[in-house]
Specification:
It is a single chain. With 410 residues, the protein is an all-alpha fold. It has a domain at 353-410. Helices cover 77% and strands 0% of the residues. Helix 5 (97-110) packs antiparallel against helix 6 and helix 20 (356-368) runs antiparallel to helix 21. 37% of the residues are buried.
């Protein structure tokens, strides 16, 4: 063999030997890295599968299975933030708040700016009545994701719980998403009601309704504020829309609101039909609100017989309530029985001495009985209870002169 051939042969043998040595001595560096990456990928996929099963079980309400699966996921890979968060959520629902905090604090260590972690830490502290700490975490969640309305509303509601409604209002209005988010507008409506501003509340609920037209809860709150503001036509239309929904069609509370709205727009006959329907049902015989409604609508359409029946029933069901006695007073007054009217309105005032209308009505009855000084006293009390009422002020002025002119007849 010539030298060239020998060189090639030796080189070949050397290459083969080197290859054989490599095979016999274990995996090469590249192969080992590839295997490690494959194992890591499989581990990640298995952990993710366990997490998904845990989430499905959690959403289905099977907390024990959810906890088992999330522990399995964490056993494979304990560096995944969302796994610790999900475990925290599961433990919150199981009432194990101490371990829930531990899981969520681990998630916070892994990712301090994860908004979900901050939010659920807020939930835990809220349940522990540690409101200031809860607020910090809710605000953190919103800071790390200021386009998630849930975080913002949670922070605002915590401010409200801490008796800081004005702070909550400023906080929500400062957010870039506040104008175009139904949940935030709804919360601003709640704040307006807390601040005794039902007109502003109605505006917020109206905007929330436009932003979320299918949200029945928002529509219901809009109806309540419309009733407070005396916007009976709007309330009647909206509550009628609610009652068209299958899930709401038999709700007594909505039917009562509908009847009151119908009375407000001058449709007492339709309102009375609703009250009669409610009273005809199995548990309707003791429904105080329905009997009061029946009495008022019957009185409005001059059905004195039904009104008397309602008045008697109201007094029987709730003798400490003033409504039945007011209805009796109105009926006695209509029939010209002034002494009985005065006795009944006095019974009503004994049970409710903060209603200006009751004192104004007693003043009218006393004047018709020639009791001008007593009538002036009742009118003055009505005006004091409702100082913005021009009618009560006018009643006082008219009685002042009558009281002086007719003093001897008192």
């Amino acid at each position: 063999m010539n030298s060239l051939a020998r060189t090639v042969s030796i080189a070949s043998l050397g290459f083969v030997g080197l290859a054989l040595t490599g095979c016999g001595g274990g995996h090469g560096k590249y192969t080992q890295e590839h295997i490690s990456l494959s194992k890591e990928k499989m581990s990640f996929m298995k952990s993710a599968t366990e997490w998904d099963l845990a989430r499905q079980a959690f959403l289905a309400g099977d907390l024990e299975k959810a906890l088992e699966k999330i522990d399995g996921s964490l056993g494979i890979n304990d560096t995944v933030v969302k796994s610790h968060v999900l475990k925290g959520r599961i433990l919150i629902e199981m009432g194990d708040l101490g371990n829930a905090i531990k899981s969520l604090q681990t998630a916070e260590t892994l990712s301090p700016e994860d908004p979900d972690t901050q939010y659920y830490l807020g939930v835990v502290y809220e349940r522990l009545n540690r409101s200031d700490e809860a607020l910090v975490h809710f605000e953190n969640a919103c800071e790390f994701d200021d386009y998630n309305p849930g975080y913002a509303v949670a922070a605002a509601e915590m401010m409200i719980d801490l008796d800081r409604p004005d702070q909550a209002k400023r906080y929500l209005e400062s957010l870039p998403m506040s104008v175009n988010n139904a949940g935030i507008q709804q919360t601003l409506g709640h704040i307006a009601l807390i601040n005794k501003d039902p007109k502003q509340a109605e505006l917020h609920f109206r905007d929330a309704r436009l932003l979320a037209p299918d949200d029945r809860g928002i529509l219901e709150e809009l109806v309540h504020t419309q009733m407070k503001n005396g916007h009976y036509a709007d309330a009647e239309r909206n509550v009628a829309a609610l009652l068209e929904k299958f899930e709401d069609k038999d709700r007594r509370d909505l039917k009562l609101i509908h009847a009151k709205a119908l009375m407000g727009v001058g449709r007492p006959v339709e309102a009375r039909s609703i009250y009669q329907e409610l009273l005809s049902r199995t548990h309707g015989k003791s429904d105080l609100d329905a009997w009061i409604g029946l009495g008022n609508t019957s009185y409005a359409i001059n059905d004195n017989r039904s009104a008397r029946r309602a008045a008697a029933r109201i007094v029987s069901i709730h003798p400490n309530s003033h409504e039945g006695y007011v209805l009796w007073a109105m009926l006695h007054h209509r029939e010209g029985n002034m002494d009985q009217a005065l006795s009944s309105i006095n019974d009503a005032i004994d049970r409710n001495n903060t209603d200006a209308d009751l004192f104004a009505f007693r003043s009218v009855v006393q004047r018709e009985l020639g009791m001008y000084r007593s009538a002036l006293s009742s009118a003055s009390r009505a005006s004091a209870l409702a100082p913005s009422s021009r009618d009560f002020k006018q009643l006082v002025r008219s009685l002042e002169s009558q009281a002086v002119a007719n003093a001897p007849t008192e």
